[in-house]
Amino acid sequence: MTNTYQKDFNPSEMLNYFIDTLADAVSKKLQSQYQQPQQETQTQERIKLKGIRGIASYLGIAPSTAQKLRNKNIFPVYFTGGKLFAFSDEVTKSLKYKEIN
């Protein structure tokens, strides 16, 4: 169907046209959503997260939850002069690949 605004349209053809157009739009949207995270992880820079509060803020969780994850060794942490820190890329990667119970 080339002209969508014909006066003598066939309802079946219009429905098929609508379904095809909708399917194309959904397909394009899904492809763009699945491609964005890959690009973001490649360009994400490494941030030094200072303390449990810094880790919690980065993850968008409560400090007590970040402490529980640290106690379970979900992500690596480092100490310098008694101060805890972690790197954002290591925290993100660990959370993606480790099972949290």
Descriptors:
single chain; 101 residues; mainly alpha; 2 domains
Task: Show the helix and strand layout.
Blueprint: H1 11-43, E1 48-50, H2 51-59, H3 63-71, E2 78-80, E3 83-87, H4 88-97
Antiparallel strand pairs: 1-3, 2-3
Helix pairs in contact: 2-3
Short description:
The protein is built from 4 helices and 3 strands. It has 101 residues and is mainly α. Helix 2 (51-59) crosses helix 3 (63-71).
Write up this protein:
The protein has two domains: 9-43; 48-97. A hairpin with a 2-residue loop joins strand 2 and strand 3. The protein has helices spanning 11-43, 51-59, 63-71, 88-97, and strands at residues 48-50, 78-80, 83-87. By secondary structure, it is mainly alpha-helical. Helices cover 60% and strands 11% of the residues.
